[in-house]
Write a structure and sequence with these properties.
Helix 1 (about 5-25) packs across helix 5 and helix 3 packs antiparallel against helix 5 (about 100-135). By secondary structure, the protein is mainly α. The longest helix is centred in the last third of the chain and has 32 residues, at about 100-135. It has one domain (about 5-150). The chain has helices spanning about 5-25, 40-55, 60-80, 85-95, 100-135, 135-150.
């Protein structure tokens, strides 16, 4: 297979997986709407921050760093979703005609990659600031949670 075809297919598959993952995570298990409302997202954010704060016994500064991380992750998610209203429709449009829309696929992948590259430094900095603020016991709790989640194949 030619190199550019492989790259395009890998890019499209990667974008599809990325969008599918975002759709699955973003639904909050609502039926028809793939995005959560701002009110639902805020409610979920507060519940997660409260639960993490209680589990890790975070102090006020650590809670603020965790809130900053949550905000940066939300910003990156919004940037990845972009202006489109239905990522599945965007991907389906690539194969709607008699030929695969290579230009549209490349533009789609390029846009998602650019969004990741633009927002990732802020997310990485916020994650680092939060993790580095934890004491060794709290850091171990985070590692244990990540190992437990991976072992069972789902989030805690």
């Amino acid at each position: 297979m030619k190199r550019w075809i492989k790259q395009t297919l890998v890019g499209v598959i990667g974008a599809t997986v990325l969008i599918g993952g975002l759709s699955a995570c973003g639904t909050g298990h609502h039926s028809d709407n793939w995005q959560t409302s701002d009110a639902d997202a805020t409610k979920m954010r507060e519940r997660i921050l409260e639960r993490a704060g209680n589990e890790l016994k975070l102090d006020a500064a650590q809670k603020q760093r965790l809130a900053t991380l949550a905000d940066k992750l939300r910003e990156q998610r919004v940037a990845l979703i972009g202006s489109g209203t239905d990522p599945r429709a965007e991907v389906q449009a690539l194969v709607a005609g008699t030929t695969f829309d290579r230009q549209r696929a490349q533009a789609f992948v390029t846009a998602k990659t650019a969004a990741l590259q633009a927002k990732s430094p802020d997310v990485i900095a916020a994650a680092g600031d939060f993790y580095d603020s934890l004491n060794p016991a709290q850091q171990q709790q985070v590692r244990d949670f990540m190992n437990r989640s991976r072992r069972w194949g789902h989030r805690g």
